[in-house]
Amino acid sequence: MKKILLSIGLGLILLLVLAVLAVGLFLDGAVKRGVETIGSRLTRVDVRLESVSLSLLSGSGAIKGLVVGNPEGFKTPQSISVGNVSLALQPGSIFSDKVVIKSINLEAPEITFEGGFGGNNLSTILANVKSSAGGGTATSANTAPNQEGKPGKKLEVDDFSITGAKLHVSLKGMDGRSIQGVLPEIHLTDLGKGPEGITSAELTERVLTAIEQAALKGADKALAGLDKNAAGLVRELNQGSATGAVDSITRTLDLLKKK
Description:
Layout: H1 2-43, E1 47-48, E2 51-54, E3 60-69, E4 78-89, E5 98-107, E6 110-116, E7 119-120, H2 121-132, E8 154-163, E9 166-171, E10 179-182, E11 186-191, H3 200-224, H4 233-238, H5 245-258
Parallel strand pairs: 5-8, 6-9
Antiparallel strand pairs: 1-3, 2-3, 3-4, 4-5, 4-6, 6-7, 8-11, 9-10
Helix pairs in contact: 2-3
């Protein structure tokens, strides 16, 4: 009798372990598909993930190989590339109306800031996000429905950080070539705190806004040593004004070609 009970107990434990593993694998795939599908729809550029790994028991997780493309008309192949993203969440919140994420850290991402007369790639993607969420007009040539859809869950992110980022600054006319810079560290807290939470579109907008602002500072600093007029170039481009920018770009490109 004891052997039978022991066998049943071991069988139940095995089934429980298999069930946890199955749910974990299902969630990993669901998160990957969700990020790629919703991310691409919001930004109107290609968003890809290599893999997602979540632990239901500890709440820890990792995202590998996140790549965000560029809108049409830009020469550089991508705007954001992240090898590793670590996160920690409240496991029980996965099954509630609001998923509580304790922390997200983008480790040593590569950010490309490509500027031109009509703006820059990051501001274009940000405009697409606002338009997709119903808050503005997209500036990208890509077309997509102007609705994010009804998200099934709200989010809360207590701590979001980007550390050790590399910045690539590329001006229109440089054929994809870039100047290397440094992206200031980004740290956001209490996103979606409270019962209302935050939507995926709102979270994406907050993060992209912070990235663009940091990239503008980093790009301005990277260009400052190239030409005496280059320091204000990024600000002019971001405002969408071509006044005085043409000569600055020409002089900057001439200097780059001599190096």
